[in-house]
Amino acid sequence: MTEVVETEERSAEDLAYWEALNCRFPDADRVFNECIKEAKALLTPAGVDAYIEHARFIGKMGRGVEPLLIFLEEAPTVASIVGEKILPEIKDFCLFLSTNTNFKSIVPFLQTLGSVTKRLHSYEQLHAYFDILKDMLEQTTGSVHGHHKTFPSPGLPLLLEQSPRLLRALSLEGYKNWIDYGVKYYNKHPERQKDYFSLQSPDAIAVMQRERHGTLMVDHERQLDLYLRGLWEDSDYLVPYSSAFDELRKPMPYYDKLGIRLPDVYDDKDGVSGIDRYRATLAHMAAHRRWSSQMIVDNWSPFQRVAVEAFEDSRVEYLAMKEYPGLRKLFLALHPIPNEDDLEIEGESMVRLRLALLSRAILDPDFEVKHDDIRESVKRFFIEMEKDGISSSDNMASLALSFTARTRRQTDLSPKIYFKNTEVDYRDDNRHLWIYIEQGDDEDTQFEHLEEQKQQDEVDSLPPRHYHEWDYNSQHYRPDWVSVYEAIHPSGDANVIDKILEKHSALAKRLKAILDALKPQQKVRIRYQEEGSELDLDVAIRSLIDLKSGSQPDMRINMSHKNDGRDIAVMLVLDLSQSLNEKALGSQQTILELSQEAITLLAWTIEQLGDKFAIGGFNSNTRHDVRYSHIKGFGEHFDTEVKRRLAAMEAKYSTRMGAAMRHAGHYLEGQKADKKLMLVLTDGEPADIDVDDDQLLIHDTHKAVKELAADGIYSYCINLDPKADEYVQDIFGKNYTVIDNVDKLPEKLPQIFMALTK
Fold this sequence. Notes:
Helix content: 40-55%
Structural class: alpha/beta
Number of strands: 20
């Protein structure tokens, strides 16, 4: 008799996910509703799709239902902690176990993955964990005559079961060392290997205690976060990294847009506890985040950059100690005391020693330096700091470049560099200070007609961004073929735009009635928030249970609300080529003037709806000079400043559309929205003066549309060319509208937008 599985009624979306899973296990059917609910709460739509795809693969491996059930339950939490890119790696590791006679290890691997992830806390650490397991498996899996893997690893399932316990006590480096010891001494003794990796043998406990040292970051994450918030009014994700696996370069603390990166363990050093070493590192980086600014460094030598780092590090620490005097004792204890006498050593580069002496002298008033140039530079540093009490990164750069020039020696070029007592290991690597301007490789061909234009715009524009271009003849991309120069659009008279809104006030009233129907009304909850409008009781109770049981509680116990129904980001890309200066057929206005009116009404419409939107205009003068002007950014409102830029619109040059769409997509892709729409307003086909083949740029723009679609961006074209039917479908497929009567553009453009975003 066939078992009947009773499940809750599924929504159409959940039913589609269940069908994509393509699973016939009754046990999976029972838990699927709760699992997909959690996945949708923790993952992005793309992440949920990947989650289902990889779950389907695991369910089809032929290893029973248990691996699938565990993956469905554990994977969303793991991906929410370290990032969704871990999902395919989990699937690949399961496949690796399945095809290496170690399929019985799949279940303990998945069962403990959630706990392991909460300890390791970062993608890099979890990736290294997988590598450690693979290495252990390769060494302990038995083979026949050294060729065919026949016998599974005796210790791997037991190691996986003990991994959460081991990682609560050890750093990832200590975990690896503990495994290496067991492999080395018990690889040929299966039973003793089992005792070791199950933590049953005295040897295993002793080695674990030997490797257990230092202060683990994950055990003090909350304490360090409170330190940042309380003293520095700053907060960011604290992400651990391990220094055990980078053989080429010793990792250093740093911060970027993804968080603050810290070593996973700090030992006590020079009388300073591990937790205080973390505090020193965070204080240094918090000072940078508060007082440092970025600098362009392409023209600086490596020696000059190192010198700028030393001066800027000293400046922010000076300011930090001024605000919190107790930091001086901590910094002094951790800063090395360099030996000035070693400056006399021949044949070695002493750049680092000179800078370490300078840094110590700035930090420690009692530290005496005999070197005249170093002593003079320290004096100049304090004079600079006393001018306004803060100084700036640029001023420090000037002092550093002067110091480098005055102290340069021939031996500075020696490949043998002096390092003793010069490494200040609580300081970060200063990557946040640098801006690099990288030039593309251009041909020798000179375009004299571009030089004057480039000189005029050089002050106002950013360095070029290079994009590939599709060559349909060879079916390959031309790498870094097009140079896109971007700049803020010049400003004009905002009254011009206000008069346009007055002119179309009747149309605006009609649009307003439609807009009221489109505005979102319902509210939806946003859960797992550190700060919110009310307490999320389910999460709060779960966190309290974790706290009482000795686990790290989830601090995201609040929730907030947002309007449901519209989560849209819109990028409006305007063709500003020369042809827009022509009079529209049957009108006294130019196509540019009518486009300006249409864009004004559309911008007003989107502003009323509250959608995120940006406006950019483009034209081109060969592939070396594609101009992209920012008229409105996503972070701006449709205010006077934006109106001034819109009023100054002018048309010139040609229409290299593919490059402009790729560049606009670069900004649209960074927006967080359920739907991303790129509207392209043009009056003709893609063309440029350096392209003879009419089809070349048409095919390239079509390729750009496909690239954007792969990134989740929906492209739609509004074309004002009566002959557009001959080519626009080849570019945009069915996603276009041709407006023959350009005079109707101001009325039709907002209506098209609202139809696309219902």
